[in-house]
Amino acid sequence: MHFALPKIFYFINEFEENYIRKLDKKIAIIYRNYKKKDVYTDILKIKKLCKKDGRKFYLSNNLDLAIKLKLDGAYIPSFNKKIIKKKIKNDFLLLGSAHNAREIKIKEKQNVKLIFLSPLFATKDKTNILGINKFNILAKLTKKKVIALGGINANNINSLNLTNSYGFASISLIRDKYNLIKSIIKKN
């Protein structure tokens, strides 16, 4: 791979220009909106803004559209188990999420470059928490770089140092604790 992989990912489900602009450029955006029917306009606006700011932008669960729009890549959620038969360019990054060993193997077969393991910590909608020990055991099952996801907040972010993670992804932490994220980025 000839380019640096992002270490911090921010999941969004709508276009909020002012908020995206204030984020550090090292934070990659993953657009994930499964409820809205017409996301095309939002995706184009986000793409334009990310390109202007030099930020990486990925689309969740729509590989064909991500390729067509020449985005930086696509995120394949754990529920998407289809094996990808398309030829993917080297500079197009495939990301994927997994919750267990079986799903890690599926993501490897899908040829993702980064595997998001979740949930690391408790979240409001996930009850099957991995925790640090199980996270590290699962991370060792793959040679792919692993991203920590799920329940990461200001109280437990320092615990990421105890994991075998390459980076992390979040929604609320990045949204609500911008100054904390800025200090983390400066360390990396």
What does this structure look like?
There is one protein chain. The chain has 188 residues and is α/β, with parallel strands linked by helices. The protein is built from 7 helices and 8 strands. The chain has an 8-stranded parallel barrel.
Strand content: 15-25%
Oligomer: single chain
Give the mean pLDDT: 90
What is the total tally of β strands?
Answer: 8
Class by helix and strand content? alpha/beta
| Series of H and E elements | EHEHEHEEHEHEEHH
Q: Low-confidence segments, ≥5 residues, pLDDT <50? A: none
Largest sheet: 8 strands, parallel, barrel
Structure annotation, total helices = 7
Query: How would you describe the shape?
Result: globular
The percent range for helix content is: 25-40%
Q: Terminal Cα separation, in Å?
A: 20 Å
CA-based gyration radius: 16 Å
Lateral strand order in the biggest sheet? 1-2-3-4-5-6-7-8
Gist?
This protein is an alpha/beta fold and 188 residues long.
Task: Name a few traits of the molecule.
188 residues, alpha/beta, 8-stranded parallel beta barrel, 7 helices, 8 strands
Write the layout of secondary structure elements.
Blueprint: E1 8-12, H1 17-22, E2 27-31, H2 40-53, E3 57-60, H3 63-68, E4 73-76, E5 93-98, H4 101-109, E6 114-117, H5 131-139, E7 145-149, E8 167-170, H6 172-176, H7 178-187
